[in-house]
Amino acid sequence: MIKIKNKNVPLKVDKASQLERTRRLRFLLKLSIFVVIILFRWLYSDNLLGDEIYVPEHFLKAIVFFATAYMIISFIRLTLVAIYLRRHHQQSGFRNNFVIGINQIANLLSYLALFISILFLFHIEPGQFFTSISIIAAAIAIIFKDYITNMINGLIVMFSDQLAIDDYVKIGDHKGKIVDITLLNVHLLNEDDDLIYIANSTILTTHIVNLTKNNQKKITLEFSLQPNQIEGLDEMEQHLVNSMAEYEEHIRTDSMHMRVTNINNNAVTIKFQLVLNKQNRRMERDIRRHLNWNIISYINERKHQETA
To answer: How far is the C-alpha of 152 from the C-alpha of 150, rounded, in Å?
Structure first.
């Protein structure tokens, strides 16, 4: 696991905005270089540097193609991001799902343009190349179908409004805050500051609870007792409520309650819930730790009384 501190996560928004400004400046610089290349390409057909140094036509073709494709991709990416932010009245927000999705598509198209440029560099026509390897491409697609499916699922997650950066979610057995979404996985920061990578294919096939869009101030603690330990549940509930006196100013009045959610021959599942006045991840973590220790101490105390 990779550990990150919660206090560092919000800085990613600022870094993303700075990175976007840097991309815009780089685009202007690359646009200037691109114009120079086009001018040289137009002025000099087969011989760019004179009679002393010969530059082959296919080499120039590869450079011009990649430069043209890259500039078009960059321009469209910057335009779409600017239009999206303007329509949503945002000055920043470059960690938005839509922006992340556009960036990933732009990266994929840039790699494709680079690959085609390499084909031109080696005197290979892209149309003939892709036609000749159609059978091999089908075999490669079958071999890497899981990765391709994962990438497609990643794009679906990016362009949907179900999950977003900074949402607090529960995915399967993992609970935490989404800090990044890529083509391969979702990065989840749990309560122990461990960074968990969850594959996008898992995201679309697993039950997900978005606590941010539901009730992000609710704290639910689930635990199990043996059937012979469930006597005095009212006393346990009152004990836990009394133990929360030091956190009284952070908890909504009369929101604490305990209930049985499942009963079987081996265990009884119990939930203790409360609602905070405002969202506070550090306070939530302290309260969970406090409740866990009080539940354990209460059960041990009851055992000691029964054996005394």
So the answer is: 5
